[in-house]
Amino acid sequence: MAETLESRIKLRRLQPADLQAFQAYRRDPEVARFQGWSAQSDAAALAFLDAMAEAPPFPRGSWWQLGVAERASGRLIGDIGVCRDPDGLGVEIGFSLARSAQGQGLAQEALQALFVRLGHLGVQQLRAHTDARNHACIALLRRLGFAETGREWAEYKGERCEELRFERVVGVG
Question: In the chain, where does DSSP find H-type helix?
Answer without folding.
Answer: 19-26, 29-32, 42-54, 106-120, 135-143
